[in-house]
Amino acid sequence: MEKFLRISVIRCPHDSFCWKICTRLLSTLQQRSPGIDRLCSELHMIPAIQHDESLHSYIHRVLYLDSMSPASAKLRGVLAFNVDSRAKAAASLMTWPGCYGFNRVLHSHTWYPVFGIFNNGYDRSYSQRRYSPRANCSDIGKKEHAYCPECVKEDFVNLGFPYWRRSHNGDVTVCAKHNVLLVASCHSCGVPFTTTSNNRGHGLEVMWSGCSGKQITEVAVEFNKNPTALKEAKFYSDALDYGYLIPLEATIRLLQRRFKYLKASGKIFTSVVEDGFRAQRLLIDKLDLIQPGHERSFSYDGDRLIKAAIAVYEDFKEFVNDVQFGNNDLRPVQSLWTTYISGGYESIQYIEEDYSSGVGIWSCPYPSIRSLDPSSRDSAKAQRSLKYPCCNPDSLESSGLSASVKAKAAVPKIPILKRFLEEQKTATANL
Ligand SMILES: [Zn+2]
Ligand SMILES: [Zn+2]
Prior knowledge:
mainly alpha
């Protein structure tokens, strides 16, 4: 009863009118626990996602609270799909529009910022092809989850319920805030926590249901004694919270210089770190061969950059101050959230969603002469026809073109949102 009251009142995501109704009704019904959850459901009270809450945590929390609600039905339908489908569904539930909402979920509730904050200066999108209906991108983060007992205790005090954090869902073993070891398996039965409940692990609902009558708060807190583990956790936590784009090429060159300087000063690195810097140097050698005026479009695994930065810097702030030195015009990550790559390989095509007029603006800012080469991917794509269910596919197949492909469902219609820019500023200020 108390759980539903606290959750419902605190998390009502609607305007003050709705909040007042909810509060008044719930306060008069405090003694009548049956039906409270149904009442909340009828008032369309969709749980709000919490700061740093992992996308999986949110989905499983909604399902746990009311498995029969329309919100649960929507999220259950995408559980079997990849993280991009789940992010789109969660964004839609919170009425965050289109590509902007999708990227906001990726940035604030998944491990994606580790990759997304590095930008090669050419890319106009935050998540490249992930929003496109034809995307087939790799998953983000781990299926296994872990929690910090101290964070859970704080959640109970501040919110009345705990949740799984995305900053604990990556390659870390320690809570950056409390310096305690993350709990990665059930203290009652020993199995790990996974996004899917099966005989090899607990589903995430164990956070709220407990295991065999024991709550997760009953675990003993174990303080971390490994300074390197704490440094890594803080580094990743700060990178996930960083709200600006970091220039990719400048970062690689800076890390190389720093690595050489420290080596010359006598610092010893592990063979793994040495190999990482060697691979980066090969990339720089290739970039140096590109003629002035030619494309410098390239990508690099952001996680490898963070690992390299951890090897040569004390903390993320020092690293980012170095790489952004002298740059007084830092670009917020949100500046790319409304744009996605809609197609093209040698000549990449973008769509920018304009919510003030409800249209998508197509652009191909860097057309490449290589697209005309018969061996290019763009040429190969141009030779394939798209089959739309609304057209006559038979005539396409008999047109003599090479194998046709079935068109996938289009992205959602772009809404017209008169006050979107002001709302965006307010919303992202609270990230
Ligand atoms: Zn913690
Ligand atoms: Zn258990």
